[in-house]
Amino acid sequence: MKFEWTVALRFLREGRMQTALIIGGATIGVGLIVLITGLINGLQGDLIRRTLGTLPHIVVRPPDEINRGQLAQAQGGIGAASAAAEKARLSLPDIPSNAEALASTQRKVEALANTQARAQRLRSIDQWQQLAAQISATPGVVAVSPNVSGAALALRGEADKAVNLQGVEPAPFLRVTKFDEKITAGTFQLNTGDIVIGTQLAKDLGVGIGDKLRIQTARNAGDAFTVRGLFDAGNRDANRRNVYVNFRTGQSLLDLAGGASNIDISIEDVFRAEEVAKALRQRTDQQVESWIETSSQLFVAISNQTFFTRLIRIFVAVIVAVGITSVLVVSVVQKQKEIGILRAMGAARGAILRVFLLQGAVIGLAGAILGSGFGTLLMAFISRVFKSPDGSAFLRLQIAPELYAAAVGISLVFGVLAAIMPARRAASLDPAQAIRI
Amino acid sequence: MSQPILALKGVRKTYNAGTDVAQEVLHGIDLELQSGEFVALIGPSGSGKSTLLNIIGLLEPATSGSYRLDGREVTQLSEDEMTRARLETLGFVFQFHHLLPAFSALENVQIPGLMRDGSYTPERRAEALRLLEAVGLKGAEQKKPAQLSGGMQQRVAIARALALSPKLVLADEPTGNLDTKTADDIFALLRRFNQERGTALLVVTHDADLAARCDRVVRLVDGVIAEDKLIHASAAPV
Ligand SMILES: Nc1ncnc2c1ncn2[C@@H]1O[C@H](COP(=O)(O)OP(=O)(O)OP(=O)(O)O)[C@@H](O)[C@H]1O
Ligand SMILES: [Mg+2]
Questions:
Q1: Phi-psi category of B221—alpha, beta or left, where left has phi over 0 and alpha has psi -120 to 50?
Q2: Which of A3, A22, A101, A138 could bridge A327 with an S-S bond, Cβ 3.0-4.6 Å?
Q3: How many beta carbons lie within 10 A of that of residue A148, not counting itself?
Q4: Cα-Cα-Cα-Cα dihedral sign, residues B139, B145, B150, B154
Q5: Three-state SS for B156?
């Protein structure tokens, strides 16, 4: 390969202006791609952060209707029983007893289907500890936070406000929601007797850090709590209604001792929420909802945006590739004499092919490296100059190594692909023809 | 009798075969060259000298006939095998020297070695420097072809043709666009390498004086060998 490298680099150096121009073109192209990608990733990240706020990516709840839910569970039981029967049949072919188990489960299901719906009340997820452990082990899941939530009343002196009481385990809860970023005063501290409330509720009730208020529910006369933190979730309703207490405290206030009314999940790639949710649905009869379902409009908007930016990037890449191709085609014509003499002297067609493929690769690589720098400068410029209404940077500068790795990889591949046609042309030059010129 | 370096039998060449403009340029050439022979190929313009040289140089195939190069039948070789044979057995010198303009004189001479070995070795470099000195270009090693005169460029081309010590060097009008004095020097150089290294040479020339300084003169007229005569005893060991 030393021969090919030597000749390829020398040819590029010889074509000074041409080489400089096409590497410049590739630099601008890659820079544009890096910029657009960084911009869109930044904007979408921002949009998701703002819109989804502190919502978990996936929530697991008990099934809506009690009958249907238990029916499903019972059906799950049938499935398990028949699977067990199958297993048993495979290992111990002579034992028929599992058929009986199957029949009894079926009877149970029929009985259940006829049961009346129970009065709606806060229910716990069945065996949530086990389920939470299972979810934690699911690929793509970053954090899992079981909690209880239900209606309650916040009282202070004469005033009372209806609130949505949430009992959470602080550490996993913060990992799922990054709620600590929303705290505007105090800390997200939740020992027994501590409470964290929204700024709006604090205003409505006239309380501040260290003040006491009372929380009461339909089933529990309630307790006094000390306000340890105030949050601003960026949403007035949330700031007015949500209050956070310790998980255990929440369980007893909501009369759900040992239970969890929902499991909040955060995942690595928010756009794969539906995939992860689907995987979870196959494992549990509980209701699994991803943000993609609950905020489908946002998701569609983001998907469209992603599609169009991808289209733009492909166009830019193709334009750069066409530029590389045309420059190399010209170079092959200019150098046909030299190529002919190299062939006559004993350079194989494959070697000539590689000389030109290498030139494409070098142009692509140089464009990728320079373009990454160029794109980053543009991003830095934009994030410095353009500000959001609230004064924060309009675009967070994201130095994502994957982005640069992808830029280099794609540019390299496009460079080589762009060189294929001219390289084949060069390799098929007839040396006898070339030296007669 | 030493083994012939090349042996052509009944070689014909038709251009544009199978079309209206089909034209047979060589009409059955029989030619043998012994190792170390210094042969001039002369003849009027259009008689087929370059065509014959290209066939011998494995740059284009004969339409029919047999061709043994260095004891091996080469008419059936694949393109890549022919390329390999060119690299290992043959050296070329052309009228328009065809040096690579982006490479220095020294690098041009080292290119065949780079192609064969895949690297610049110190031995090849030393050999290239020796060759450049032998062709009288000591001190011009780092110059680019554009910085050299026509005669000097042709000397580089000769050094390059000899870089891998080929058994046969083919030269198509190597002095065609040089003045008489320079042409004389170049010819002397070819003769010297022929004597010192025993390299066989087949040189196309229009210059009768130069042809007369070879061991043997082959005259081609209208695609047939009209005359083939020995004029000096070959320098090569017989
Ligand atoms: N590629 C080709 N296609 C068609 N005809 C060709 C081709 N190359 C050469 N010819 C023809 O073959 C004949 C011999 O050409 P060639 O170049 O071998 O002659 P030459 O003896 O080298 O002439 P000169 O002394 O002018 O160089 C000429 O009539 C030429 O037109
Ligand atoms: Mg000719």
A1: beta
A2: A22
A3: 26
A4: positive
A5: helix
Q: Count CA atoms closer than 13 A to A23's CA, side-chain side.
A: 16
Query: What are the tens digits of pLDDT across the range A369-396?
Result: 999 999 999 888 888 887 766 666 666 6
Instruction: Specify which residues B125 forms β-bridges with.
Output: none
For residues B202 and B6, give the distance between their C-alpha atoms in angstroms, rounded to a whole number: 11
| Mode of pairing for the β-strands spanning A262-267 and A58-61 | antiparallel
Q: What pLDDT shows up at residue A100?
A: 56
Q: Which atom of ligand 1 is nearest to the CA of B53?
A: 18
Query: Any long-range contacts for A433-437 (C-beta under 8 Å, 24+ apart)?
Result: A433/A340, A434/A336, A434/A337, A434/A339, A434/A340, A434/A341, A434/A343, A434/A344, A435/A337, A435/A340, A435/A341, A435/A344, A435/B59, A435/B94, A435/B98, A436/B50, A437/A336, A437/A337, A437/A340
Torsion of CA A397, A402, A406, A407, to 10 degrees: 30
The whole-angstrom separation of Cα B58 and Cα A329 is 27
CB under 8 A, 24+ apart: contacts of A81-87? A81/A105
Encoding tokens for residue B115? 């192609």
Low-confidence residues in chain A, pLDDT < 70: 53-54, 65-121, 388-398, 437
Cβ within 8 Å, pair B87-A346: yes
Give the residue carrying structure tokens 């410095």.
A384
Mean pLDDT of B205-209: 90
The residues, any chain, with a CB within 8 Å of residue A258's CB and separated by 6 or more, are A124, A251
Interface residue of B104, B115, B144, B162 to substitute, partner A, most A CBs within 10 Å:
B115
The answer for residues whose C-beta is within 8 angstroms of residue A320's C-beta and 6 or more apart is A25, A26, A29, A30, A367, A411, A414, A418
Question: Rounded CA gap, A183 and A196, in Å?
Answer: 9
Q: Which residues of A37-48 are buried (b: 16+ CB within 10 A; e: fewer)?
A: bbbbbbbbebeb
Angstrom distance (rounded) from CA A29 to CA A42 = 20
Residue ranges per domain, chain A?
2-52+299-436, 68-115, 128-285
Q: Does the beta-carbon distance from A432 to B102 stay under 8 Å?
A: no
Neighbours of A294 (CB within 10 A): 14
Query: What pLDDT, in 10s, does the model give residues B115-134?
Result: 999 888 899 999 999 999 98
Number of CB atoms found within 10 A of residue B138's CB: 11
CA distance A69 to A71: 5
**pLDDT at residue B157 above 70?**
yes
Tens-place pLDDT, residues A271-312: 888 888 998 888 888 889 998 888 888 888 888 988 998 999
A-chain CB neighbours of B112 within 8 Å are 345-346
The pLDDT assigned to A92 comes to: 44
Mutating to test ligand 1, I would choose from B21, B23, B25 the residue with most ligand atoms within 8 A of its C-beta, which is B25
Identify each DSSP E strand in A157-259 by its residue range. Answer: 159-168, 183-186, 194-198, 212-217, 220-231, 242-246
Enclosing H/E stretch for A379: helix A349-385
Q: How far is CA A362 from CA A9, A29, A304, A426, in A?
A: 8, 15, 34, 17
Other C-beta atoms within 10 Å of A251: how many?
A: 20
